[in-house]
Each structure stands twice: as C-alpha cells, then as structure tokens.
Amino acid sequence: MTAQKGNKARLTSPVTILAGVGPKKSEALAKLGIFTLEDLFFLMPRRYEDRRFPKPLSQLTPGNTECAVAVVSEIAERNGRTEAIISDESGNARVVWFTDRIAEFVYEGMRLALYGPVNDRYIDFPQFTHPEFEILYRNKTPTLIGKIFPIYPGTAELTQRAIKKFVDTALDTYAESCLKDFLPERITSRYKMMSLKDAIMTVHNPPDEDKFIRARNRLSFDELFLLQAGVIMRRRAFTGKYHADILKPGKIFAEFENGLPFTMTDAQRIAVYEILQDIEKPYPMNRLLQGDVGSGKTIVAIFAMLAACDSGVQSAFMAPTEILAQQHYMSLKRFLDPLGVKSALLTGSLRQSERNEILSGLSDGSINIAVGTHALFSEGVKFQNLSLAIVDEQHRFGVLQRGNLTAKAIAPHTLAMTATPIPRTLVMSIYGDLEVSTLNEMPKGRKKIKTVSLTPPEAKRVFGMIREEVSKCHQVYWVCPVIDESERDLHSVTEAIERINSAMPEMRAAVLHGRMNADEKSRVMQDFSAGKIDILVATTVIEVGVDVPNAAMIVIQDAGQFGLSQLHQLRGRVGRGDAQSYCVLLENGDITDTGRERVMAMVETSDGFELSERDLIQRGPGEICGTHQHGVTDFKVADLIRDEKILILARDEAKKLLDDDPNLSSEPDLKKEILRRLGGVLELAITS
C-alpha cells in the first residue's frame, strides 16, 4: 500500500481499502461491526495478555497463564494427543496438546516459545496444557511473547492473529493521515495529553501499563468531552431559540398548598421552588425530577400543573402504561376536583364517544390537565394552549415519543420524572442538558421495608407469612417473571395462582398481566384497591405507579431474573401505608452468580441511589436509561464508573470553552467532530 493511497484515505473509507481484505474478510469483519477504517482504529481490545516476561520452567505457577522459552527434550503421540518434555537451565516441564499433529513438525532439540495455562505439577514437573507455541529457528526473536498482546472481540471466521494484522496494517498505513487531533491545543497541552494518533497506536500496542493508562484516559476524555460540549450546545440553542409562556402560581396553587393534609419534606419544597424558578422564565424549562420510590414526586408535579392552571394554560401528564396512567388520574382527581380543576384521562382503550368528548375539551381549553399514555400525542389530539408537559418514568419513552408530545405545543415547559434513581455520573453525562431536582428524603413516618430472601427449600414459609399478613387485613402482591410456563423453567402467573388456590383456598386471589384487555386490568386493580382481593398474582405490569397503601407484602419469584432497579421498583409497591411491610425474594434453583448478587444487594440496602450505582456497574448506562436508541452512551473507551473524575474534568473544560466561544468559531475541527460523532441528536444545536 503506497503512501499516496494512504493520504487519500478517510476515516469513513471502507476496510476493503486494506490489503488482504476481500469480500469474505469484509463480511467477517462486518459481524464485529467493522465497516470502515475508523471502526478498525476504535476496535478496542476486550482485554490484554502480558507476555513480556518469560519465566524459567522451575518458577511456573499452576493456575496461572504463563510464557516460557525452552528446548524440546522428548515428544510423542499418545491416544490422539501430543505430549512433550521441555527443558531450560532451571529444569523441566511437561506439555500436552490435544491433537496428534504437533509431532509432525516439532522435533527433539527444537527451541520453542510457549504461552498457555499451567496446571498442577505432573510428577515433579509443572505442565502446560494446550499452549500456543512458536518454533524459534536459529535463535529467532519470538513474536508470540515478549510484549503485551491485545485480545479483540472475535468471530469463528477471524483468528486473533488475523484481526491484529488488519489493525496493524490500518495503523501503519493510514493512522498518520486519518487520525487528526480535534481537541483545542490549550487543553491537550495543559494536561500533557498524548496526541490522538499516539493514543490509538498505544491502546493497540501498549509498551507498558503507564503509557496504556495515559492513552486510555486521552480517548476517554475525547468521548466525554465531545458529549459534554454537545449537550451544552444543545441546551443553549434550545433556550435561545424558543420562547415559552411565563407561568406563575396564584389562587389555586395557594389553596392547594394551604390545604395539604401532610407536611412536605424539605426536598419536595426545594424541588417545587426550583421548578417555579424555571417556569417563570420566558424560555422552556427542561428539568428532571428524580426521587426514590415513595418520595413524593407526584405532589411536586401537581404544584407545577396548578401554576399552569393559575396562568390560564393547559398541562399534559404522560405515563408509559394504562395502569400507571389510571393510577395517576385517580390520584390527581382526589386533589384537583375540590379545587375545581378539570382533568381527563386519555388512553388508547377509550370508547370513541368518550374520546371525542375529551378531544373537544382539550381543543377548547375547558380541560385543564390531560393524563394519558402515548395516546396524548396521537393524531387528532389538539390542545388549545399546552404549556407544561410532564413525562413520568421518562426513560420508558423513546426520544421521538417525548418529542411528539412536546410538538403539541410551540415550546412547552418540560418536567421529566423518574422513580429509578440515576447515578451521578449518568446525570452529568446523559442528562447534561437537563436541570436536575432530587428528592432524597422520604415522608415522615414511612417505615423501612423488611427484605428477606428464601431459597427453594425455604419457600414454603411464604404461605405462613401471607396468612399472617392477611389476618391483619393486609394485602399481598405475588410477582412472576412470565405469564405461562416457558422453556426457561421460570415460575409463571398461571402456575402461581394454581398453587395459591390449592395451598390457601380461603384466600381471595386474582391475576393481572399484560395480555388482559384494558377493562379487565382496570377492574382487577379497582377491586384490589378496594380490598376485595387478598393476593394479586401479577407480572411486572405493577412495577411502577401502582399505589395501594393497604398492600404490606410483596413476593417476587425467580428474583435473580430481574434487574436491580426493577426489583427496587417492585419492592416500592409496598410500604405505602402505616403498617410494617415486607419484600420476600424467592430464588430459583439455578440462580446465576449475577442474580444472587442482585438478591443480596436488595437484602443489604433499601437505598435506591446505591442500588442504581450497582445496577450501572452490572448493566451499563444504555440499558438503565434507554439511551442506546440514539447512541449517546455507546462509548468505545469511556466507562462512567471508572472515569468519573475524567467526566467532571471534561464537563468543566467544555463549559469553559463554550463560555468563551459559544459557537466554536475558533475551533472548526472540534465543531465538525461533535456533529460527526453525535449526529442528529445534536444537530439542532450545531446548526443553529
């Protein structure tokens, strides 16, 4: 490959530009997500093998993976295997390969470099088991050992050697022309950063640990800095481009505040104050209200909606499921009806006549507050003056769905709410363009839920625990991961209801799951809320929003199957009344180590923020916050747990730079890179 061809290449050039990459190889690389030179440059090794220091045979440690250089003393084929004795100045070792072909080209007296697992000693020798090896003719310098080797994600069609060859060819031929620095020189020099090209070269061929860490930190900073700069630009463009209604609290707001039958927490008061500060400005609020289960987010949202009512405009309250929308609607009505505020529930299951009546009230402004599912942004829904949009459990909606709701107004104030506490690093990165209010206090008098785990042999105890709770006139949730029996050997709703009816025929039990129609689900929830059902056997449809204060116990079957945040949300269905509440986690027989970790974490703590940090470590940010859909957290190098300090530094530097140069007029390469990497998500900010 000539230098001239190298100079013509771009990051977006296809991998077929490389020598040796034809149709078959490019198809195999595509399975790894590698289509361009950039994909190959940023194919980060999943781990490294330190083969720098060969050991004398006498110092090989069983249980480790080691490397050595030795001479073959004996070699023979035995029962389809090849066995050899190797020697160096310190002693001997045995080698076993699970093939009889090795002896065809390895002979006594040959010098070998070896790398592989060392097992327990064989007689008096340590033993290599099926190691990689290289024949060292004429004292050849080994290539198999002597340095740190990257190990890449692989496929059946591509060996590690082939992938490494393609990476090295791309680096040797095109790194100089393609990998150009885009960070401002004032930042790279201040922190003595490696160049982008050197950082990429180093992570693929690290000479030592210190240089590898410097290279990794540079690439992590790049990703986090670009994201922070992008979200700051998006936020500033949004607030500068749109004008919003100024909302101020008045008579209705004051009447509600004075009539509250309980004392708000300090955190709730602060959140209300922060929201009022936002909505009294002439540009759209964009705030996230996060709080643990039961921390009182709905009351805070009501204050915001009443300020809108006092200002003569409408509010929309969107929930991800019909059950949750119905729960919110019933809860809101209790507070709103005495104030003369008219609200309506809009879901997909309404009869046409009911829907038409609500649509008419929304378009003429007679309905102040609309509560609903995604039906709120369906075709035909028109508001007279929608000025406040509240999105509950916002991570369950796609970006486009949230955008469709806010598109029903010119520039509504937006309040996103979540009962899944978001780790600090995620708030700083993914939600960097949102203001954040946090409810970190629980209402006074709320008792801590007692959580226990039971193994399969202990599971029968749960029936006695249920009888005790029902005898106190309390109710119970019983949650299963699936509706019917499945091949995965998970406990199902149908199986659980049969067991409960057989073991406790005196109990009033009912089922609730996603296959039931809206009327059936509504009827069951109303009966449970009214105390007509003792045990509600359900899937995770009850995970969020369901509020029955008399429910004092929840049983979760196959608990290790659920994510930590989901388990915490399910536990939050109880503990909403004055009684002591319980969460019982039933393990299945083949629970995984990860599942067991989740169960133990639930037993150890009830702190939603601590659990969210553990969940982030286990699952990653995209799963928790639903951000894989638009690529914001698809970091190739950065890790939000490990790199928190780098994230803080990147955020601070991005803010300083944009304070001095809001449009990045002096940094065209950086501006271009932000748009190239983050694409349409940030296009509004970059192009405005």
Question: How is the topology of this model organized?
Answer:
Blueprint: H1 3-8, H2 23-30, H3 37-41, E1 47-50, E2 65-78, E3 81-88, E4 91-97, E5 111-122, E6 125-129, E7 132-135, E8 148-151, H4 160-178, H5 185-190, H6 196-204, H7 209-241, H8 251-259, H9 266-279, E9 286-291, H10 297-310, E10 314-318, H11 322-336, E11 343-346, H12 352-364, E12 369-372, E13 386-392, H13 399-406, E14 413-418, H14 424-429, E15 435-439, E16 450-454, H15 461-471, E17 475-479, H16 493-503, E18 509-512, H17 518-529, E19 535-538, E20 551-556, H18 564-571, E21 582-586, H19 593-604, H20 608-619, H21 621-625, H22 644-660, H23 668-678, H24 683-687
Parallel strand pairs: 4-6, 9-14, 9-15, 10-12, 10-13, 11-12, 13-14, 16-21, 17-19, 17-20, 18-19, 20-21
Antiparallel strand pairs: 1-8, 2-3, 2-5, 3-4, 5-6, 5-7
Helix pairs in contact: 6-7, 7-22, 7-23, 8-10, 9-10
Structure, explained:
With 688 residues, the chain is of the alpha/beta class. Among the domains are: 53-146, Beta Barrel (OB fold (Dihydrolipoamide Acetyltransferase, E2P)); 251-439, Rossmann fold; 450-605, Rossmann fold. Helix content is 39%, strand content 18%. The protein contains 24 helices and 21 strands. The strands form 4 sheets. It has a 7-stranded parallel beta sheet, with helices on both faces. A 6-stranded parallel beta sheet has the order 16-21-20-17-19-18, with helices on both faces. A 5-stranded mixed barrel has the order 2-3-4-6-5. A hairpin with a 2-residue loop joins strand 2 (65-78) and strand 3. Helix 6 packs across helix 7 (209-241) and helix 7 (209-241) packs across helix 23 (668-678). The chain is globular, with a radius of gyration of 31 Å. It starts with a helix and ends with a helix. 41% of the residues are buried. Mean pLDDT is 86; it is low at 1-6, 395-402, 622-631 and 683-688.
